[in-house]
Amino acid sequence: MASNDDQQARRSPAPDAGGDYRQRAAETKRARTIGALLGAGKNLFAERGWHGTRLADVAKEAGVSVATLHNHFPTKHDLVGECYGGMVGELSIEDGIFLYEHGHTPVEIITWAVSGLVKHSFRNRNLASAMLASLHEKPPAKLPGIKELWDSVGGFEGKNELGKYGVAAVMALIADMIRIGKHVEAAEINCDLPEWEVASHYVTATLMLVCMQPSLTEEQVERIAIVQLITVLTGSVPDPEFAADLRETWYPPSPPNT
Question: Can you tell me the distance from the alpha carbon of 116 to that of 251, in angstroms, rounded to the nearest whole number?
Answer without folding.
Answer: 10
